[in-house]
Amino acid sequence: MDMKNMKVVHYCWTCGKAHEATNTPYDFLASDKSVKCECGGYVVSPSGKVQLSIMPAIPVWKIDDGAERFRVSANNAEEALKCLIEEFGLDEFEEPNVTEITDLEELRRKFITLEEGGTQKTSIIEIVNRTEKFPAIISTSIW
Fold first, then answer.
1. Rounded Cα distance, 9 and 127, in Å
2. Half-sphere exposure of 23 toward its Cβ, with a 13 Å CA cutoff?
3. Ramachandran angles phi, psi of 58, nearest 5°
4. Could you give the 3-state DSSP secondary structure of residue 129?
5. How far apart are CA 119 and CA 141, in angstroms?
6. 61-85 burial: b if 16+ Cβ within 10 Å, else e
7. Alpha-carbon distance 62 to 60, whole Å?
8. How far apart are CA 31 and CA 52, in angstroms?
């Protein structure tokens, strides 16, 4: 899979806090390769083990307006809401609940998309990975 819109995230073995891999301070010359988290736990253990996942580089936001749920990939919640309002030509949404999707199961869960020539199953991660321009609407149905 091409990973143009993805990033690698490491997790602390103790508290589970996410650390972006490009910001993990490795010292390749040191004999001890461990990296510690703010909590005192290890992000990279002394033996070099890590817990990691592939995540969208641009956050995905769930916008729930009470009637329907939308998923929008944007840099922040305000940008996601603005994109949705502009796309649908609305003045605004009445009290939308906007939350970032960080649950890996939800990001990887397969759902049906309609494309030219039929339907296929895909995930949020797969859609974000092939998206060319952000912000972008990922889903406009309840699933």
1. 19
2. 8
3. -100, 120
4. helix
5. 15
6. bbbebeeebbbbbbeebebbbebbe
7. 7
8. 22
Locate 133 and state its tokens: 């321009």
* Residue indicated by tokens 């321009």: 133
Q: Report which secondary-structure segment, H or E, holds 104.
A: helix 104-108
Residue 108 CA to residue 142 CA, distance in Å, equals 16
**What tokens does 2 get?**
């091409």
Residue 12's Cβ-count burial label (10 Å; 0-12, 13-18, 19+) is buried
CA dist., res. 130 & res. 113, Å (int): 14
pLDDT digits 0-9 by tens, 41-99: 999 998 888 999 989 999 999 998 877 889 999 999 999 999 988 888 777 777 889 99
Say what the pTM is.
Answer: 0.77
Question: CA-to-CA distance for 1 and 129, rounded, in angstroms?
Answer: 9
| Of 116, 16, 17, 19, residue with least CA distance to 8 | 19
pLDDT at 80: 94
